[in-house]
Amino acid sequence: MSVQLPPAIIKPIQHALLNKYFIISAEAVLFYDYFMMLPAEIEHIWMTKWGIGNFLYFSTRYMAFVESPFIVLYAFDVGLGKSSSAPMLCERFYKTAAWLDLWGIVLATNILLLRTAAIWGWTRRALACVVVANLIAPPISIYGLGKTLASMRYVPSPVPSLFPCNADFPTDIAYLAFAMVMINETSVLVLTVYRRIRTWPERPTPLLRSLYHDAILFFGCLIVVSILNLVLYATPSLKDFYQLLVQMQFILHSVSTARIILHLRLTSCESGTIDGSALLSKEYMKKGKAIQNFQISGDADSDFDFTPIELDARGPSVDARGEEAKQYIVVNPYMI
């Protein structure tokens, strides 16, 4: 004899199943991207000299693998739901995953900010923007997430065989964290597009194209997911879908920022960019020069000399010889 559950119970179960499907989808994206990019990672990350770029790459790439087991256990471990310690374990797993999510996204956002600062020539204003963003966004995000997790209350699952853990959040202001992420990423996208419009040369190099192509493509995707998460968390009627895109947003941040770093190194090894730097000057582009002051370094792990390349003259000035003073930057794909 079959038992038919009332609609009031069926609908939340359907919504919870949808959340679980999206968690699995996010994990599939993570592992697919990892194994697809692993050969390039071994060659251009593992086999290169340790530096800030390597540290950022390993941090953003492998933070996702540290966090994933906690959210998977929370959502899928049937034995956990039937355990007498379920309230304590579910709470610990969820809170651990939530804090790792936040720190992973903060790290990824800083990679995006540093990359934007590189596009702007590492100017003082660009670096000041990075500092200000870190003084505002992370504290607000930590406050919002901390208050939300502090109010977490375990609720016995109606179907432990499907949903081992269930929780309620009477004080839910985690949307503050998503709002900060969205604001930061929107600012990064606007600054990148503006810079692209103002300084795009007639003959862009592959490295320059990679800088802007990755920026617009990845930033655009991340902003869309951040906006959707903000809407879900800020709308009480959508509370059943709070977990729908959280894991996907975290995984996309990890994948995107890891690819940004790796793409720069891959492109720098292509023909025409063997000096490892981006030839960004309009003047040099018109002359068709591909390399400037190329030298072979004595370092076995780094055979490139990253020479200063003119980016853009912001406000013409005249030097002692009557020539226009140029502004130079060093675009090093092994730095970010």
Automatic annotation (TrEMBL):
UniProt cross-references to Pfam families, sorted A to Z: DUF6533
Which keywords, in A-to-Z order, does the entry hold? Membrane, Transmembrane, Transmembrane helix
Secretion signal span: none
Under InterPro entries, the record lists: DUF6533
Q: Where are the transmembrane segments?
A: 54-76, 96-114, 126-146, 173-194, 215-235
- Domain DUF6533 residue range list: 21-66
Q: Does the keyword Hydrolase apply?
A: no
Could you tell me the superkingdom of the organism this chain comes from?
Answer: Eukaryota
Query: What is the name attached to this protein's record?
Result: DUF6533 domain-containing protein
Q: Which organism is it from?
A: Schizopora paradoxa
Q: Supply the source organism's classification.
A: Eukaryota, Fungi, Dikarya, Basidiomycota, Agaricomycotina
